[in-house]
Each structure stands twice: as C-alpha cells, then as structure tokens.
C-alpha cells in the first residue's frame, strides 16, 4: 500500500461515487432505526469533498485528508459529520510529513481515527455504530505485514455480518433497543464503502 | 411525495430565505449560513440565546426568535444537525460580552455539533453554557445510552430561558433556570402517519390504515410500539399516564400543558385530545396554569401529536408569562 | 380515515369542549350550543362581534375570540353552517346595547342561517349589522350567481373589525371598516390532497400523486383546475398573479400578506412559497407592511395553501396592529 | 290522498329511513360539486325530526309539520337546513286547521313551499338546486284531479333526469360552473326521497 496525493484524491473520488450510488440504500437503512438521512448526508458530504479537492493543489497526503476532515465537518452535520470529520482529522495528523503513506503508518493512523471517533461520540465497540466497522478494519491492519486489500475487505465483510446482530445503545438507533437487532447500522455500511473504495485504489497499486 | 417545494436539495435554503422575508425588520440571515438572527443582536447587557437543529420542525426553531425568546436559530438540513462552523457563527453574532447560552436537544448529532461549536467559541474567548433537553419519556433513560430525546418540551426551555435572559439574568442564572425547566418537563408523542424528508422522497415509516405508533420522535424515527388506532380519549390517557408516571406532580401542584401537533394533524383533533387531558389532570387534582395548543415542534407532515407537561413554581410562572415577540410564541 | 377522535358524530362537541378547557379563564360555552363566548361579554359600551360557520377550519373561528377580536364564535357541524337558533344565542350573549356585528363568509348556508338569526335578533330588539366576506378570486363574481367564497381573508376582517369595536367604534363604524376590508382583500388557494369529513369517512376529492388542484375552497370542494404538480415558485406566481389581476394595487401601495396553510402543509413549505411571493411583490414595487404565515383558516387535513393580500391604508394599518389576545392571533 | 296526523308522522319516519339508508349516496353526490356533507346533514336532521315526533302528541297535521320545520331549521344547518325548514313551515301554515289534508290543499301548500324556498335562497328554477325537484313535483300536483302516487313519482323521476343536465348557478355547486353539468344535485335527490316516502305512505291509502 502506497498512498500518495494522487491516490488519496482518487480514494475520495471513488468513495464519492459509491456514496452517490448507495445514497438511497443508506437512507433506507437509516429509516427503520434512524431518521432516514444518512445517505443524503454522505452523498452531500463527499460531493463537497470532491469539489474541494478538485479546486485545490496539494503537496502532501496529510493536507488532502485535513481538507476532507474540514469539509465533512462543515458540510454534513448530524452525528456522522463530526464523527467522520474527527476520523479524517486524526488520520491527517498521524500521517503529517509523509510523502507517501505506507501500510504501517496507515495502520497507526487508523488506530488514532478509531480512538478519535470513540472519544467524540462517547461510544465504544459493540454499540452498533460505525465504530463496529472502523475498529475491526483497523485491527486487521495491525496484524500481518503481507496484508492485502482482499484481507481488509474480508474483515469488513465479517464486521458487516456481526454489526447486524448487535443491539444499539448509542445514536438514534438506541431508541429502538432490542428492535435494532437484525438491522444493519447505516454508519457502519457507509464506512464499509469508504474502505471498499480504498481497496479498489490499493488494488491498482503494483 | 407531494410537497410545495422547488428543488428538494434547496428546500432548507428556500425556507430560511422565506422566513427572513416575512419579518425583514426583525430578523436577518448571517451571511453564508442558515442561521437566522435577531436584527438587534448582539444586545448590550444581555446573554445571547442560541438554539437550532435539523430543519423540518417548523415553527422551530426560527419561529422562536424575538424579544423575550431566542436571539439566533441555526438550521441544519432536514433532520440533520447544523455543522459546528454554522453554530459558531450564530454564537459570535449574539455574544455581547455577557456570554452565550445554547439550547440543545439530546440527539448525538446535535450534541456533537453544538459542543464542537462551543469549544471553538471558547477558544475565541466567548463564555458558553448549555442545556441538553431530554423530555421524551418514550425513550429509556440511562447513563449508558444516548438517553432521552429532546422534543416539544424544548419550546418551554426557549420561552423561560429567553425571558430570563431578556430580564438581564446572568449566564449562570439563565443556565440555572433552563436546567430547572429540563428537570421539570416531560413529553410523549404518537403518530398516525410519518412525514417524508424532501431529499429522501419516501416516508420514514409506513403504517397500515388501522395502525398508530406510540412513542415516536420528531425525526420520523418509528416509535416504541405499533398498535391498532385507538380513540382520542385512549390516546390521551396513555400518553398522559406515561408522563405522570415519570414525574412527581401531586395534588395541588401547578403545571403548564402543551398539546402539540406534529404537522398534519388538524387543530380540531388537538382540542379533542385536550378535552381528555384536562379531565385526567382535574381528576388527579393537578392545577393547569396555562394550556398551549397548536403546532410548536413538528416533524414535517407527520399526523400525530405530543403532550408536554411542565411542573411550574413561582419562579417559572412569571417567566412563562413574560412578553415575547417571537412570531410562533407571542405573549 | 385516520383521525385522533372519539365518535365522529361527537367530534365537534368534543372539540369545542377541548377548546374551552384550554382557556377556562377567557372563554365559556353558551349552554346547549356550540357557541364559544368571551367570559367578559357582553362588554359595556362595545359592539358585539360575532363570527362562525362550519367546523373544520380551526383555529377559525373560536381561536379568534379574545380582547381585540371576536366576542363569540358559533360552530356548526364540520363544513356545515350553524343553525339560526345557535347564532341567535351567540348574538344575545354579546349584545351590550351597542348592537352586534356579524362576520359571515359567503356560502349559501352561512348566509341563510346567519341572516335568519339576524332577523330573529332584530325581532327581539337587538340592532344587527353584517358583512359578507367574499375574497376568493378563484370563483367568478356575478350578481346572478352565489358569488365568491369567503376564505382566509376573513381573518383580516375579524382582526380589523375587532380592533375597531374594541376601540369603541359604533356599529356603523365597525360596519364601515369591515366593508372596507372586504373591498380590499383577495385570496386564492391550491391543494395537493383533500381532507376527510369525520362523519363522511372518505376524502372530498382524490388527486393522483402528480396532481394538484388550483382554486380550491376551504370545504373540500374541488378546485377550478386540476393539473400536474408545479414548483413552489410556479404555484406562488400563479396564485399571486390571479390575485393582483383582480385588485388595483400599484407601485408604492402598502399591503398585508397572509400565507395560510390548509391543515396538513408543513410550515416549511409556506415559507418557501413566501420567498417567491415577496419577490413578486418587490418586483411590482408593492410595499409589504406585514406578513403572516401559518395556519389561520384550514380545511381539516388538506395539504395546500392559500395566499391573501389586503390593500392597506392609514385607517387599516393601526387597526391591524392593535393588540389582540385571541389565542390564534396575538398582537 | 289523505294525510292525517298518523300518516304525516309515518311520512317523516319513512323519509328518515330513506335518509339513513341513502346517507352515503347523498354525501358522495355532494363531493364532486359540493362539500360532501349533504347525506350527513339529512340523516342528522330527519333523525332529530323522528325523535321529536315520537316524543310529542299531535292533534293536527299542521302542528306536526311545524315541528318538522323547526327541528330541521335548528338541527341541520348548512344551506339545506333553512331551505327544507322553510318549505315545511310554508306547508304547515297552508294546511293549518285541516284535520286531514286532501290532494287539493296539499297542492296549494306545495306551491307555497316552492315560493318559500325560492325566496329564502334567492334562486329559481333551472339553477340546479332542490328547487328543480320541488317545483316540477308541485306543478304535477296542480294538474289532474285523479293524480296518483305513481304520477308524482313519474314527475320526480323526470326531474331527476333533467336536473343532471343543468349548470349550477346557486349553492356550492355554482363554483364549478359548466363542470357541474352531468352531476346530480344532492338536494334534488334528497327531495326525491322525501316524495318517494310520501308516495309509499300514500299508496297505503286506498
Ligand atoms: N455516538 C456515536 N458513536 C459513533 N457513531 C455514531 C454515534 N451515534 C451515531 N453514530 C453513527 O452515525 C450514524 C448515523 O448518521 P446520520 O444518519 O448521518 O446522522 P443522524 O443520526 O444525526 O441522522 C449511525 O448509523 C452510527 O453509525
Ligand atoms: N340558493 C339555493 N336555493 C335552493 N337550494 C339550494 C340553494 N343553495 C343550495 N341549495 C341546495 O342545497 C343542497 C346542498 O345542501 P347541503 O350540502 O346540506 O348544504 P351546504 O351546501 O351548506 O353544504 C344543494 O344540493 C342544493 O339542492
Ligand atoms: Mg440519520
Ligand atoms: Mg439526521
Ligand atoms: Mg356544508
Ligand atoms: Mg354540502
């Protein structure tokens, strides 16, 4: 894995494409156990991200990710805006100074991101939120040094299965208590797409 | 989806413009935001009062701007909290050096974005205090969870904290009285139909023709129980009982009651509900000091209502009755 | 039919009881009627102001009772004028010897029943004058037909005639100013859905998902034209043009505007409509002195709105702004 | 035809039965060109009429009909309440003093009723209102002395056909102008049932 400025921008562009394509799906997921806006929020946010990135010249991955963070923070709102914003801000800080981001550094940055989300949202693993996607992906990254995009997506896929069975205690889904079991968490699913986009860019590496 | 709008993605912007155009001598828009602010803000010697949240709850929140209530209302997209930078602009616009008070409804999004704005404001040297409204007894209250939602009871917080600030109360005095309102207000709602977020294009949930949903929130979140439609009297009884089970109000105590329409409910039905609510309260020996009926905190075109009870004392009563020029709560 | 009611045939009685229960220190029910009256009526030295009509238009008419507006509102069944004996009781309850003024909306039923009541009252020695409100430009006006309907413009008649009566105006002075309002007020409405009369159990008319109806009344009467849903801007343009084509208001004239929700329309949409209405008026050089937005004259849970324009002068402006304690029109 | 107190009460009872049975039909007729309450109004009004008549002793047809008039006037509201009320008041006045009402007297009374409705509602024939049922029935009564219930219903039936083709200029239906053509007038139809009930009572005469 070698994230340079170009690839980071590509990651965001691919993420945006997915969010636009999955807008209705994410919104529908947010209806039974939320307020039916997550797809709208993500589509709006990542469109603004791409607009911002296309308008700006960057020399550093960290700078790209800082703009991603600030744009999400100031264009999304809701619960997901500050949480995604915090995650990208933490990654940006962690990779500061690096011309290209290698797997090890990215793994460290992801740990920071997970901690940032937890702190911001006063939540932890097992509460049926986006943390239950960010955290297992981050953990998978820490393991093997021959970690490949396919491994990441395997972890993501497994997380998707297990998040469904959790009972929500944080976010809007918490109002439904045991009724939330059996539903996917929209924030976990949008996180899945974020990393799926990363996998696609990463696969193009070699 | 049948709506009188232009572009669904422009609905909030169009709405905010239309609101300001209705009261051009009273309010204005902070440039490049969806924050509506009193034209005379910041007001020397007065604590600034900030509220806001997702759109779709009209007349909340901009309708509560005016002498005696809010100084600024920051609107987000429909059912989506506004972003910290917008809230920050709102805070800065109303700070006259006496500090700024934030009224936040207890949703993760609102809490996160408003708290981040508060941190940013404090970093710029502005004193900020806040209250988190959590009046919805339909939701379980526990320190391990998100906690209860803030719904129509928020209007009483606007009114009473607003009156306190207008009367020259200090930031800590405003906070104290707002905390008291939150400790003494309880609400619960029900719905017959759900509203449709313009950009989503389909209703938040679907009910059969003979079904209602008890314990709904104000964002199209489904409720805690779905059951066959009951009579107005049965509905009033269930909601009022749940509220009174949750708060210690006894014989001879005085309260304010709000029968709130959620958007598509004819006022006729709210009066029918009120008939029963007043009878229940009379039977319990609870004195109703004031009753408010109408649309105060809505959920787009949801058909349904909520009932709010505020336990009053000699401090709260005059603040509730104090003058207000807010278009949605004139006194 | 999804409604929060008890027995459909008791809906009006329950509603009136619930209304009185909300403001027990301000209003009371005339025994054995559906007429709600100010508790301090008859008021010495003041002309009594009577309005009313079928129910289903809440907050009209009882919501306009209060110091500075109506003295009594007589409710009929849903969309059905009250009967002469009930109107007579209302008249008698508010006559203080200065005479009584009736505000009647121009529907055959309302006109017949109120006129019969006026005849009965005159037979009992009470001086009675009246005005017939006919502001709906959607309907053709001709002396050979029933003529135009009275819709949301009626609220301005209540407000201004009420202020005149409260200020001690004589019966003929109240009539004069009410006639002036009627001569200077125009309205037009549109709907996306129709409401359901509780006892009928099904909507007044059915529209497809992509249809709207222009020129509807406030009783679920279908409109004059059915067409594909247009944008808020297009709707605002069409209604405003029709109104301004019908009344001579020119550059520099001052008006009041009312954007009225018909029952199920979120206030958000009314603000969106207002954005365009204000732009049209600005372009024509017409000065907007006051804007009112909200539900003032509804048609059960109809989704839709009406626009009302009142041409003001130096006599009408202070009367419009005079204090009012009516719950639905506080000033 | 011989209307005595008993038969007059029976007429009202049969009318009420019809109005209850036709409530939805009359309301439905009032929806496309009115406000959808005519059936509700008639059902409420004639139920109250029957309640009143059952609670009272009468010696005279005129007294029965006066109570019918006053009850309709004070319980119906809308346009139809005062109009039906006026019609019955005129009939009551016209038959005052008669122990039984014969055809000739009833024919005269009907003329008064029609004039009363016209005056009250400031309308005349051809405006697609209940007048277009009351008036032709009244006219038919004036003709032959061997007038039978079947003849009355023939006139009523003919009126029903022609009222459909009229364009409304009075009442709520007038708002629809040429669109009202092709629709039945609800008030004309309720009047049809009123006289159908009379025909039934009358047929029992012999
Ligand atoms: N306290 C929290 N910690 C972490 N993630 C959270 C928390 N609360 C909510 N979320 C995530 O946010 C998602 C909802 O985002 P979104 O619908 O955009 O915001 P909102 O809930 O304000 O409408 C949830 O699916 C969940 O993954
Ligand atoms: N001016 C009038 N003269 C005679 N009949 C009328 C007049 N206006 C209305 N009607 C009759 O009244 C009927 C409507 O009655 P109803 O629906 O009960 O009252 P409303 O129109 O007040 O809702 C119409 O079908 C018509 O026959
Ligand atoms: Mg959401
Ligand atoms: Mg949201
Ligand atoms: Mg009617
Ligand atoms: Mg009718």
UniProtKB/TrEMBL annotation, chains A, D:
| EC nos | 2.7.1.121
- Put simply, this protein is called phosphoenolpyruvate--glycerone phosphotransferase
Quaternary state and interactors: Homodimer. The dihydroxyacetone kinase complex is composed of a homodimer of DhaM, a homodimer of DhaK and the subunit DhaL.
Q: Which reaction does this enzyme catalyse, per its entry?
A: dihydroxyacetone + phosphoenolpyruvate = dihydroxyacetone phosphate + pyruvate
Lineage, uppermost ranks = Bacteria, Bacillati, Bacillota, Bacilli, Bacillales
Where the record annotates domain DhaL, the positions are 6-200
> What is the stated purpose of this protein?
ADP-binding subunit of the dihydroxyacetone kinase, which is responsible for the phosphoenolpyruvate (PEP)-dependent phosphorylation of dihydroxyacetone. DhaL-ADP is converted to DhaL-ATP via a phosphoryl group transfer from DhaM and transmits it to dihydroxyacetone binds to DhaK.
User: Quick one: which gene encodes this?
Assistant: dhaL_1
Q: Which UniProt keywords apply?
A: Glycerol metabolism, Kinase, Transferase
TrEMBL record, chains B, C:
Q: Which UniProt keywords apply?
A: Glycerol metabolism, Kinase, Transferase
Start and end of every DhaK domain? 7-329
Coiled coil residues, start to end: none
A GO CC term? Answer: cytosol
Please give the pathway this protein is involved in. Answer: Polyol metabolism; glycerol degradation
A GO molecular function assigned to this protein is: phosphoenolpyruvate-glycerone phosphotransferase activity
Cross-referenced InterPro entries, in alphabetical order? Answer: DhaK_1, DhaK_dom, Dihydroxyacetone_Kinase
Work out whether the entry's keyword set contains DNA repair.
no
Going by the entry's taxonomy, the superkingdom of the source organism is recorded as Bacteria
- Top-level enzyme category: transferase
Enzyme Commission code: 2.7.1.121
Q: Which Gene3D superfamilies match?
A: Dihydroxyacetone kinase, domain 1, Dihydroxyacetone kinase, domain 2
Q: Does the keyword Transferase apply?
A: yes
Chemical reaction(s) catalysed: dihydroxyacetone + phosphoenolpyruvate = dihydroxyacetone phosphate + pyruvate
Q: Which Pfam families match?
A: Dak1
> Biological process (GO) annotations?
glycerol catabolic process
Q: Which NCBIfam families match?
A: dhaK1
Q: How does it assemble?
A: Homodimer. The dihydroxyacetone kinase complex is composed of a homodimer of DhaM, a homodimer of DhaK and the subunit DhaL.
This chain's function reads: Dihydroxyacetone binding subunit of the dihydroxyacetone kinase, which is responsible for the phosphoenolpyruvate (PEP)-dependent phosphorylation of dihydroxyacetone via a phosphoryl group transfer from DhaL-ATP.
List the protein's name.
phosphoenolpyruvate--glycerone phosphotransferase
What gene is it encoded by? dhaK_1
């Amino acid at each position: 894995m070698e994230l340079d400025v170009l690839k980071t921008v590509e990651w965001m562009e691919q993420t945006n494409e997915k969010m636009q394509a999955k807008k209705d799906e994410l919104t529908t997921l947010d209806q039974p156990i939320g307020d039916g806006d997550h797809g709208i929020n993500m589509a709006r946010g990542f469109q603004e991200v791409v607009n911002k990135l296309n308008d700006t010249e960057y020399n550093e991955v960290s700078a790209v990710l800082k703009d991603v963070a600030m744009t999400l923070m100031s264009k999304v709102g809701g619960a997901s805006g500050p949480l995604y914003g915090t995650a990208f801000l933490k990654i940006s800080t962690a990779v500061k100074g690096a011309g290209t981001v290698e797997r090890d550094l990215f793994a460290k940055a992801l740990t920071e991101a997970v901690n940032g989300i937890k702190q911001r949202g006063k939540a932890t693993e097992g509460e049926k939120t986006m943390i239950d996607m960010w955290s297992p992906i981050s953990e998978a990254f820490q393991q093997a040094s021959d970690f490949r995009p396919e491994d990441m997506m395997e972890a993501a896929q497994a997380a998707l299965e297990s998040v469904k069975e959790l009972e929500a205690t944080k976010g809007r889904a918490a109002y439904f208590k045991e009724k939330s079991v059996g539903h996917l968490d929209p924030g976990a699913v949008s996180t899945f797409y974020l990393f799926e986009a990363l996998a696609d860019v990463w696969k193009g590496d070699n | 989806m049948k709506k009188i709008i232009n572009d669904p993605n422009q609905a909030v912007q169009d709405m905010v413009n239309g609101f300001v155009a209705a009261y051009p001598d009273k309010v204005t828009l902070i440039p490049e935001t969806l924050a509506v602010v009193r034209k005379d803000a910041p007001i020397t010697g007065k604590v600034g009062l900030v509220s806001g949240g997702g759109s779709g709850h009209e007349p909340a929140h901009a309708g509560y701007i005016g002498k005696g209530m809010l100084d600024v209302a920051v609107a987000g997209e429909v059912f989506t909290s506004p972003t910290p930078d917008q809230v920050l602009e709102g805070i800065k616009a109303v700070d006259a050096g006496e500090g700024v008070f934030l009224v936040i409804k207890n949703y993760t999004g609102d809490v996160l974005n408003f708290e981040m704005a508060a941190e940013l404001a404090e970093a710029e040297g502005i004193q900020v205090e806040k209250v988190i409204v959590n009046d919805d007894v339909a939701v379980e209250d526990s320190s391990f969870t998100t906690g209860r939602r803030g719904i129509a009871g928020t209007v009483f917080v606007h009114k009473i904290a607003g009156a306190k600030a207008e009367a020259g109360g200090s930031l800590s005095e405003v906070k104290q009285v707002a905390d008291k309102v939150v400790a003494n207000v309880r609400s619960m709602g029900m719905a017959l139909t759900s509203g449709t977020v313009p950009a989503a294009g389909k209703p938040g949930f679907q009910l059969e023709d003979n079904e209602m949903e008890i314990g709904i929130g104000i964002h199209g979140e489904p409720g805690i129980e779905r059951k066959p439609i009951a009579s107005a009297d049965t509905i009033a009884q269930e909601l009022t009982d749940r509220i009174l089970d949750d708060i210690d109000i006894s014989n001879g105590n005085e309260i304010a009651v709000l029968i709130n329409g959620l958007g598509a409910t004819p006022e006729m039905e709210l009066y029918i509900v009120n008939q029963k609510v007043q009878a229940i309260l009379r039977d319990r020996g609870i004195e109703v000091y004031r009753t408010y009926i109408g649309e105060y905190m809505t959920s787009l075109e949801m058909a349904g209502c909520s009932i709010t009870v505020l336990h009053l004392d000699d401090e709260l009563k005059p603040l509730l009755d104090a003058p207000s020029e807010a278009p949605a709560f004139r006194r």
